[in-house]
Amino acid sequence: MCNALVDQEDHSKRKNFLIKYVGDCLGTLLMTFKAPFLPLFDELLPYLMPMWGKDRTDEEKRIAICIFDDVAEHCGDAAVKLLFTGLACVQSMVELHSDHMLAALSRLDVVIRRPDALHPDNVMAYDNAVSALGKIWQVHRDSINVAQVVPAWLNCLPIKGDLIEAKVVHDQLCSMVERSDGELLGLNHQYLPKIVGVFADVLSAGKDLASEETATRMINLLRQLQQTLPPSAMASTLSSLQPQQLALQSVLSS
Predict the structure, then answer these.
(1) Which end of the chain is more exposed for a tag (fewer CB within 10 A), N or C?
(2) Angle at Cα 122 formed by Cα 153 and Cα 97, nearest 5°?
């Protein structure tokens, strides 16, 4: 039995060494050839995608993140399609070991901070990056800098490109407000005006950005806030809304 365990450990070490070697090679090729290398990289995807699987080790997942991080860093606009594929994988592996969160967050940050992130060609990747950021925050809030992640995530809302993902993200926001998440609301409710503004934008979009159930919950939350907050605080929050959000006042008064 001891021999079997030793053999298994040796096999695991050799496997990790080989995977790391492949990752290093791909990183070098991406750094050297940049976007012209992407067609060949695309052909390799069927062999790389299993590295994100739940049955794979943290080391394999870390290397997969690093590979796609190299794609984002060295291939620019040509990499958007591949980044979208990678983001879907990040969302499926939010239980990734906390040691690798910085790499995942760094990669998401690259997508979110692109100057043309909201361009029609890029907005799907952007929306999925925002969604992944929120999910990572929920699962790994003890392992990340919440003071940076929370305002960054809120500032991206509402998302409007990927309507399926939008409903998921806005439902997540609604659930967090319902449980009075202190990190979301911020010190002295400093993020409340932004949250109310997001609710207003989502509600004004009809059924596009939220399910009927989520929209109803948002309205109930807003009415609850109106009843529990000091009148001056709610008035200040409403006064900060953009013109397109002012219709919210009629919802609250109905």
Answers:
(1) N
(2) 50
